[in-house]
Design a protein that fits this description.
The structure holds two protein chains of two kinds.
Chain A: H1 3-32, H2 34-51, H3 53-57, H4 88-124, H5 126-141, H6 144-155, H7 159-186, H8 189-196, H9 201-237, H10 249-256, H11 265-292
Chain B: H1 2-28, H2 34-39, H3 45-54, H4 61-73, H5 87-122, H6 127-141, H7 144-158, H8 174-208, H9 211-218, H10 223-245, H11 247-260, H12 266-275, H13 279-307, H14 310-314
Classes of the chains: A mainly alpha, B mainly alpha.
Chain lengths: ~300, ~325
């Protein structure tokens, strides 16, 4: 057996145990952070509700019933009914799907646009870097909601457009973050070593730089997703996102505002759902950050 | 120092230029003929043509851009389609209301966040720290528009202590003005307080582990003196930067808060202009918001470099 083949075999033998120790470390960490574990479980429950909405909700979230207008919570309607006699529980459950979709897809878009731009800027430096960063500065100068409002004005209000607007609003953060990470990673010995061995730019970026910055990007995603979920709710609340009668937490709160005196439960549940989901995301994200990024925060 | 100011200033000028191009193109991407919109619904073909001629809408795009920028630099952002009022004067009448709201919420945020952040850092890993960090997490997670609705539900509907909406100018009745502004300002200040508290705690912890703090202790200073005279002052420097970067979030928050509490400020103007498809107003409002964000952060960076000489040597405080 040649020395290099021996090395490969040893590495292959060690890989599972390294994986095992990482899992063990995760488990030890998890036991020290019960709040993060609870957060992660609640997020998973919301994901399950989003996927299983048709089965969990029971009744049609858009079915109005004039005999059931603004009824207080009861056994038949645990969250009460709204101004059109629709079941609030069913609408909150279906709203999970819209919130999750907007929250996750918008950040996926932000990563898909922002990471390549940040990679190029950080990797090639020079004039291209300057051009991208000046664009990013200008981009960042538009407050998130103002940018989203501007884009929705141009494209028209809908869930898809709101998702795109939120994603574009979050993009500059990813350009900046990726660029900063690339600047420090590209100078590392293993990247320089790979370059010396003749690896091309694309291979260097895809095989050596990207995998090493992925965990930081993932941590940023856990911070951005709850912000994006709130942003979707805000846009829908303002009438610039999901259009009625579709069940979105934001539109539900919008109509609830007119009936605060007679039907306050209409305002409780959608808001509580947003609060619980974002809080759980933040708790789970804190734990993930500790796990992936051992620096003390 | 001079070099830093020039470089930082140049970056801001480039940023403002890009912003103006983006806003200009953005408005031209809106589907529909601007001449038709400007002329109103009951204009005939000749009327539309006259408008097109008058505003130079048939000219090449770069010419239109240069004309628009040179007018904007002289403070002319056109007229609202709906009210025919100059965009600048409409904004000028709404802005003081939002500035008052932002100022009050800043006051609330700072007076909660800084003592709480310092306490959490000094009493690290105690019940106080956990309470402060928990409150900060809650403050970041709670959607501010829902918090606003819940406050109205509790203080206006249930208890009847505070009016749910409506606005009284501060120069007419300061006391009534404050009574109506306290809930919106609290809602707007919550998220800011959460972010500031976290930042204060982190930078205070960092400062407390610095050598000069140990020196201060070892020469026999009371811990009160060390914390108040040495630690807090130094730990607040990064907090000021965060404050500048949070101006954008404050602006977004004002849009929502003013909508809920029916405060007739700048934020409400933005939403109204979008719904009435008042494009010159949308264009002006977005341009003003983005430009003031750039200028505020320029001021923050410059004042920061005056406070902290290390930055002038290393280049711009933010990576660029």
């Amino acid at each position: 057996m040649s020395p290099s083949a021996a090395a490969v075999t040893t590495a292959a033998l060690q890989a599972p145990s390294a994986e095992g120790s990482r899992l063990a470390r995760a488990w030890r960490q998890a036991r020290h952070r019960p709040a993060s574990v609870v957060g992660a479980i609640v997020v998973l429950l919301f994901v399950a509700a989003a996927i299983g909405a048709p089965w969990i909700a029971g009744v049609d979230p858009m079915q109005s019933d004039w005999k059931l207008v603004r009824k207080a919570p009861s056994l038949a309607h645990p969250f009460g009914t709204d101004d059109l006699g629709r079941d609030t529980f069913a609408r909150v459950v279906w709203g999970t799907r819209i919130s999750m979709q907007a929250g996750v897809l918008s950040i996926v878009l932000a990563i898909a646009v922002g990471v390549p731009l940040g990679l190029i800027a950080g990797f090639y430096r020079g004039a291209l870097d300057q051009a991208i960063m000046r664009l990013t500065d200008a981009w960042l100068a538009f407050p998130f909601l103002i940018l989203a409002i501007g884009l929705v004005t141009i494209m028209g209000p809908s869930l898809t457009n709101a998702t795109v607007a939120i994603g574009l609003g979050a993009t500059p953060t990813y350009i900046r973050l990726t660029r900063g990470l690339v600047l420090s990673t590209a100078a590392e010995d293993y990247v320089q070593g790979a370059r010396a061995l003749g690896a091309g730019d694309l291979r260097l970026m895809a095989r050596h730089v990207l995998p090493n910055i992925a965990s930081s990007l993932l941590v940023q995603a856990t911070i951005s997703i709850p912000i994006a979920i709130i942003a979707e709710a805000v846009l829908s609340f303002l009438g610039l996102g999901v259009q009625p009668p579709a069940p979105s937490w934001g539109t539900m709160l919008n109509s609830a505002q007119q009936f605060l005196e007679t039907a306050p439960w209409m305002a409780w549940w959608p808001g509580l759902a947003i609060f619980l989901l974002t809080l759980s995301f933040n708790l789970a994200g804190d734990g993930l950050r500790d796990l992936l990024d051992p620096r003390d925060y | 120092m001079f070099e830093f100011l020039v470089r930082r200033g140049a970056i801001s000028v480039v940023t403002l230029f890009v912003i103006s191009v983006v806003v200009f193109t953005g408005v031209r991407m809106i589907p529909g003929d601007p001449a038709r919109v400007l002329a109103g619904t009951d204009a005939d073909a000749a009327g539309i043509e006259a408008i097109r001629e008058k505003y130079g809408l048939g000219d090449p795009i770069p010419v239109q851009y240069l004309r628009w920028v040179s007018l904007a630099l002289r403070g002319d952002l056109g007229h609202s389609i709906r009210t025919r009022e100059a965009v600048v004067s409409t904004v000028g009448s709404k802005l003081p209301i939002t500035i008052e709201l932002a100022f009050l919420s800043l006051l609330i945020a700072v007076s909660i966040a800084i003592p709480a952040g310092v306490l959490a850092a000094v009493r690290r890993n105690t019940l106080w720290d956990m309470l402060a960090s928990g409150a900060s997490l809650g403050g970041v997670s709670i959607p501010n528009f829902w918090l606003g609705i819940m406050l109205i539900l509790f203080f206006s509907v249930q208890l009847g202590w505070l009016p749910a909406s409506g606005f009284v100018p501060i120069w007419e009745n300061p006391l009534d003005n404050l009574r109506r502004m306290v809930m919106p300002a609290f809602v707007l200040g919550t998220a800011l307080a959460a972010v500031l508290m976290r930042q204060t705690r982190n930078s205070m912890i960092e400062v407390l582990s610095a050598d000069y703090i140990r020196t201060a202790y070892s020469k026999g200073l009371a811990s009160r003196a060390v914390i108040f005279r040495h630690a807090i002052r130094n730990s607040l420097i990064p907090v000021v930067t965060i404050l500048g970067l949070q101006m954008g979030a404050l602006m977004s928050g004002a849009v929502v808060t003013e909508q809920i509490f029916v405060v007739p400020g700048f934020g409400r103007l933005i939403v109204e202009s979008v719904f009435t498809r008042d494009y010159p107003l949308v264009q002006g409002v977005v341009l003003i918001t983005a430009s003031s964000y750039v200028l505020i952060n320029l001021m923050v960076d410059v004042s920061y470099s005056l406070l902290n000489p290390r930055i002038r040597i290393g280049g711009a405080p933010r990576e660029s």
